[in-house]
């Protein structure tokens, strides 16, 4: 096997003993090349990461070399085997969604032209499905195949879907948040939360137990996560023992640990909100925004506005840089948006609030219940809540 003269990765001219043995047995196909990258072995031309990396001393806890499933399976973070299996099916679903979002053949590009063609034909049987509906079907299929889910509650369905009588978990999800912006290639995301099935409800009628299982308080979440589909595909998750983020390596198909023990800064310098609606806000919120962007708040620096209008993207930036991401209207859904994201933020050292109360302490009463949502750095959130009147209760009639 002849190595190429140059490479964007660090080329290893002398193979370690394990690799030499591997080569001597003729187990590398012609046209593949061995490199070392981020402390792990890699072979160009392969669709999976080399198993040789797993035995190396550089394969450390915080080196970025753990895949998502390796992390939850080996780190001793108290994740049950059934939950590992479920997470594996969820990550597979999200990889499929990521591929559809990035594909030039998805029906979001040139949507009006596609819809016109359907109208002319008089039949929509063969028309491509909108990506949010397709994403919902992909996730449902993966949950069914996992054998670990009793019920799924989704933004795309009016009622929860009962999957299995003996599934140990309940999954709530927004399959493709921000899909209305996908025509402009603005980042989108998937949000999910995982609860234990309430066995004490097993004797109730199916519809009733499906609903009650889906309306659990956020304090009962056993896991939550979001996947950001952007310049990178990032899966950020928590199992109640910190927040970790994994980045999809498209050359191997693995989510690789890139942000171990992710912590949101206690104070940021960014607020994220649609401040074109400034004059519709309550007095308290306007005062807060005026104060921090002039540098007259508890933090003596002027804040900047950064707003993508994609919940997952705005939250991800806030987790990395600190500050506050918010929607002061009764718009975001408690069950499958606010609760999972608040759990993630709290496990990263931040806070999720409706402007008055901790999100996770709220008891859902309806599946698609809406509320204001404020997520961010602990000190920023404490300052924001001190203004009291930050919830926009009046809908002026504009579209979201």
Automatic annotation (TrEMBL):
Protein name as it appears in the record: Uncharacterized protein
Organism of derivation: Bauhinia variegata
Superkingdom to which the source organism belongs: Eukaryota
């Amino acid at each position: 096997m002849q190595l190429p003269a140059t490479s964007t990765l660090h080329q290893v001219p002398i193979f370690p003993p394990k690799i030499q043995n591997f080569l001597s047995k003729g187990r590398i196909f012609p046209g593949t090349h061995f490199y070392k990258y981020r402390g792990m072995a890699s072979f160009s031309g392969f669709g999976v990461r080399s198993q040789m990396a797993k035995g190396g001393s550089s394969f450390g806890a915080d080196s970025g070399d753990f895949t998502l499933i390796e992390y939850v399976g080996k780190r001793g973070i108290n994740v049950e085997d059934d939950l590992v299996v479920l997470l594996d099916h969820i990550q597979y679903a999200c990889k499929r969604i990521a591929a559809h979002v990035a594909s030039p053949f998805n029906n979001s590009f040139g949507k009006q032209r596609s819809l016109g063609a359907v109208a002319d034909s008089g039949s929509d049987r063969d028309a491509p499905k909108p990506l949010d509906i397709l994403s919902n079907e992909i996730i449902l299929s993966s949950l069914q195949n996992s054998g670990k889910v009793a019920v799924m509650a989704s933004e795309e369905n009016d009622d929860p879907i009962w999957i299995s009588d003996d599934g140990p978990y309940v999954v709530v999800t927004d399959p493709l948040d921000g899909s209305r912006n996908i025509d402009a290639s603005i980042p989108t995301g998937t949000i999910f939360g995982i609860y234990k099935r309430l066995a004490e409800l097993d004797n109730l009628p199916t519809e009733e137990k499906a609903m009650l299982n889906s309306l659990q308080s956020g304090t009962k979440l056993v896991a939550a996560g979001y996947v950001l589909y952007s310049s990178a595909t990032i899966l950020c998750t928590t199992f109640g023992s910190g927040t970790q983020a994994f980045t999809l390596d498209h050359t191997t198909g693995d989510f690789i640990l890139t942000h171990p023990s992710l912590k949101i800064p206690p104070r940021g310098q960014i607020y994220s909100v649609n401040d074109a609606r400034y004059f519709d806000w309550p007095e308290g919120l306007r005062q807060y925004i005026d104060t921090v962007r002039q540098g007259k708040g508890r933090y003596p620096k002027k804040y900047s506005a950064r707003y993508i209008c994609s919940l997952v993207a705005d939250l991800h930036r806030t987790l990395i840089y600190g500050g506050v991401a918010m929607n002061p209207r009764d718009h975001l859904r408690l069950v499958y948006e606010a609760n999972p994201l608040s759990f993630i933020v709290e496990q990263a050292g931040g806070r999720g609030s409706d402007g008055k109360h901790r999100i996770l302490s709220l008891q859902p009463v309806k599946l698609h219940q809406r509320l204001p949502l404020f997520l961010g750095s602990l000190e920023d959130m404490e300052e924001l809540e001190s203004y009291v009147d930050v919830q926009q209760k009046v809908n002026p009639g504009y579209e979201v």
